Amino acid sequence: MDTETTESIRKRVNKRLQDSSDGVDMEAPIRLLSSETVYRGAIFHIDDRKLALAKTDGAEVPVRRQILVHPQAVVMLVHDEVQDKYLLEREYRVGPNKFTYGFPAGLMEDGEKPEVSALRELREETGVVPKDEQSVHIEHVGDFYSSGGMTNELAHIFVIHLSAWKQGPRHFDKDEHVQSTWVTWEELTGIGIQAADSTIAIQHEEIRRLRDELAARK
Q1: Is residue 196 over pLDDT 80?
Q2: How far apart are CA 91 and CA 53, in angstroms?
Q3: What is the rounded (10 degree) CA torsion for 89, 150, 108, 182?
Q4: Which of 24, 49, 180, 197 has the greatest CB tally within 10 Å of its CB?
Q5: Which range (1-5, 72-76, 213-217) has the least confidence?
């Protein structure tokens, strides 16, 4: 049976959604009326935007939103296939205001492909470098907005399987402090990771492990 395309599903479902409209035409483009940067930091800035949403009768509805404009990011769950262990990090996160567990992650550079950025950030934060191209397999889990209601930050999430790797030096930013170690699957899933992007990667890897376990039983 042929798999239905995303576009055809969207077309069918969007019609049903449009039938529930309060007058706003969500098939029409959104018009930007103005945008003012009200805060600028080292990594992100905040814009105050006024926009116009089209109505089905041809009129417009004005709305105002604040957006945290942030570079795209990469997040990697790294798996040592030989030891069957995973790379865990701990560092200070200002959101929860505590030292939290997570995975190697970082910001993409302009023009950089996500897979290239992932291996670069892995090398810089942990010193872990694949032995060669044949010793690394990168699974693309997906691309997810961290909070679509407030920021355009898009996280590219990967699971990186390594059959051979070497340890090199780590390179941190001036105010960056990161601990890292290899842990078992039981330690990884039991330590209490709360970051949404890391949790998505764990769930993806859990499905793979279950699939492999079932296949081994046959």
Answers
A1: yes
A2: 41
A3: 10
A4: 197
A5: 1-5
Question: Which residues, 6 or more positions from 74, have their beta carbon under 8 angstroms from its beta carbon?
Answer: 105, 106, 108, 114, 117, 118, 121, 155, 156, 157, 158
What does the mean pLDDT of the chain come to?
Answer: 95
Q: Please list the helix, strand and coil fractions of the chain in percent, rounded to the nearest 5, in that order.
A: 25, 40, 35
d(CA 168, CA 158): 21
Helices (H), the chain: 6-19, 114-126, 185-190, 196-217
How many CB atoms are located within 10 Å of the residue 96 CB? 10
Across the strands, what pairs with 47? 37, 67
Q: Show me where the domains of the chain are located.
A: 6-69, 73-217
Q: What is the pTM of this model?
A: 0.92
In this prediction, residue 1 has a pLDDT band, given cuts at 50, 70 and 90, of very low
Beta carbons within 8 Å of 139's beta carbon, 6+ residues apart? 158, 159, 160, 161, 204, 208
Among 131, 122, 136, smallest CA distance to 180 is for 122
The half-sphere exposure of 109 on its side-chain side, counting CA atoms within 13 A, is 7
CA angle 80, 86, 89 (to 5 degrees): 130
DSSP 8-state code for residue 30: P
Question: Per residue in 2-16, pLDDT tens?
Answer: 678 999 999 999 999
**CATH code assigned to 73-217:** 3.90.79.10
- How confident is the model over 146-157, as a mean pLDDT? 96
